[in-house]
Request: fold
Amino acid sequence: MTIEPQVTKEHKTLKAFHVAVVGGGLCGLLCAVYLTRAGIKVDVFESASKFGEVGAGIWLGTNALRALDEMGLKDAIIAHAGGAVPALTPFTFVSAKNGHQLIHSYQLRAEDETLGIHRAACLRALAELLDPAAIHFNSRCTHISQENRSRPVIHFKDGRSYETDVVIGADGIKSAVRQAMFGETGRLGTKFTKTVAYRALFKFDDVKRMGMQTDLSCDPHCFVGTDKHIITVPIRGSKILNVVIFYTDHSLPGSMEIPPNEWVTSASRDEVLAKFSDCGPDVQKLLSLIQTCNKWCIHAVDPPLDSFVKGRRIEDALMLCRLLTHPAVDLFNVQEALLVYDRVCRPRANMVLTRSAWAGEVYESLPHEADDDAKFEALRSSLAVLWEPVWRHDLRKHLATALDMLGTLDSARLVELFT
Reply:
């Protein structure tokens, strides 16, 4: 069965090419909304049966909010944030051990607003801006075929297929789009990091009743431990505390593979408490609130991709959309826009990937001795600069570079430079 594009009377197509977005997560929907508003025919294919309360809270950093503002979607997201508004919220790092001493407080600049919000609220905000006929649920992509440089065809688990001009892969770490691009290396390029993350949401009234020393009500916090750390982010106007609990087992073999159906499983409070038994009272009190939680086996793309033609981060969604909607881009030269996107975005994306792995190491490097001043100073120094290249990125300059490249290079020249 072939899925036919749905064109409504209200929809005016200004571009001659169609776009299919595989994956209805945050970045996938951002691309869909922006491109639709620009007059490009877009269909979204989501494996789930609906947009539900999947996932947990997310913290939109200053670079993400700037990108949303450039896309004209920042206000729509804020309207669904449960009363929360962008604010200057320092990220505070404290020891997970007894005493919970302050290690470092990452102070923001005047323009560095951030926002804590539930992922489901973001999806609702964006889905409301799309024609429901353009969103196809229960559509799990299994593979993509493209013969003799023809249009790509997306194939789904239930036997349906969809032919389009451009495929944007936003289908997560298990991406079928990535596998289609890189063959077997697409799947082999995901590696278990030896880290698991337990995710939970707590009511703030319950957190307050625990009488914790550390005030988690306003700002994001990180409890820094040894081979473990905990991130807390207040969401929904500080009514809910989003908690992500990380634990790394370095004794596991580096070649260990987790079956895909076991990447996310349920976990008990006792399991989590046992792994954090060496932590101080605030950690113990916080974890005692767990009723049920999910355990996520954290995977990463490894090695970094040598080609990058799918929007995964909010910044990438903005860059890809600006290039595809450029007045000079049409069906006959859309490949040129994708080559520019790859050229401009891939280095930064791989930098963020590497930086994120380093962050995990730093967050779990608490010195064993509380009076080891040299190691604490080294930890503080790392925390002070860790995210500077991410947050201090000149987004508009990056966009200008891409658009200039698009305007001055023809397809043949791009292929010559990039291969």
Summary: The two ends are 37 Å apart (CA to CA). The chain has a mean pLDDT of 88. Residues 334-363 form the longest helix (30 residues). Residues 230 and 245 are 5 Å apart (CA to CA).
